[in-house]
Amino acid sequence: MITIDEFRLIRDYVEKHCGIHLSDDKTYLVETRLTTMMFEQGCNTFGDLYNRAVLDKTHTLRDKIIEAITTNETFWFRDIHPFSILTELVLKQYADEIAAGKRNKIRFWCCACSTGQEPYSIAMTFLEFIRHYPRLKPENIEILATDISSTVLFLGKLGRYDNLAITRGLGEEYRDRYFVQNNKIWTISDEVKKMVRFQKLNLQESFNHLGKQDIIFCRNILIYFSLEFKQDILKRIAALLRPGGYLFLGASESIIMYTQEYEMQRHAMGLYYQVK
Ligand SMILES: C[S@@+](CC[C@H](N)C(=O)[O-])C[C@H]1O[C@@H](n2cnc3c(N)ncnc32)[C@H](O)[C@@H]1O
């Protein structure tokens, strides 16, 4: 069983390196997620595992601990509203600007992309949109998908999903249009795959080098961070968005209480934020 001192060491270590804040009632979570690793590493206690991670100059063990603690839950078209807002409002606005020669690209950043369902859902939304708006081409959109975890990025790049993952949020029509089936595995089509670029990025680090973005999906990740870290990320995201740029959060997330940089907007049943 993990001791309270071991829990606190690991909790502080995790927060220092990825921002995830674990409250005192998460001892069980740390214990269950790290037990196999503890034995695989030949350690007898969680304290030994912690010491080994701290001494590991390659950071391999540190990354493994972070991967074990993070939650990668995701599915296609999660919460649906962000994607209908894209179609009904955001893409329409940018498509008009492209048609008027005011811009030629729409830049998306999906900043905690997990295994790819979210950025690929954005790509499919765009492909559906241009079926009715043929003046736009897939080249008019750039989707950057980032995550702290090398494992989820690898899986996202592969774009292969089993029978269970494929059904979660995805209708048969899109499945048949945008995936190729091989036995029990569904692979995202090249048309969709080539629209998304995956890259490793820890949100604790500077992301200025990504350049200005039009739309940022930062969904179902802020809930894991401390108030200070949330405020810090939201400030930096606001600085990265072009004036009037869009921020989408998870359905259960709200930021209005701790940031002044955004205007909350409503569309049909969904919410989105625009940088002031
Ligand atoms: C619950 S998933 C959300 C996936 C997707 N955005 C969605 O809403 O379906 C959270 C993701 O955030 C990633 N993550 C956790 N800490 C991070 C950090 N400091 N920087 C970047 N990504 C992080 C995890 O690896 C995980 O894949």
The level of helicity is 40-55%
Specify the CATH architecture of the largest domain: 3-Layer(aba) Sandwich
Spans of at least 5 consecutive residues with low confidence:
none
Adjacency order of strands in the biggest sheet: 6-2-1-7-8-10-9
What is the 3D shape?
Answer: globular
Alpha-beta content class: alpha/beta
Number of helices: 11
Overall mean pLDDT stands at 96
Task: Spell out which ligands are present.
Answer: S-adenosylmethionine
Instruction: Give me the CATH superfamily of the largest domain.
Output: Vaccinia Virus protein VP39
Sheet bearing the most strands, described? 7 strands, mixed
What does this molecule look like?
The structure is a single chain. With 276 residues, this protein is of the alpha/beta class. Strands 6-2-1-7-8-10-9 form a 7-stranded mixed sheet. A 3-stranded antiparallel sheet has the order 3-5-4. Helix 2 runs antiparallel to helix 4. The chain has 11 helices and 10 strands. A hairpin with a 2-residue loop joins strand 9 and strand 10 (270-275). The protein is 44% helix and 19% strand. Bound molecules: S-adenosylmethionine. S-adenosylmethionine binds at residues 18-20, 70-74, 78, 112, 114, 118, 147-149, 152, 202-204, 219-221, 250.
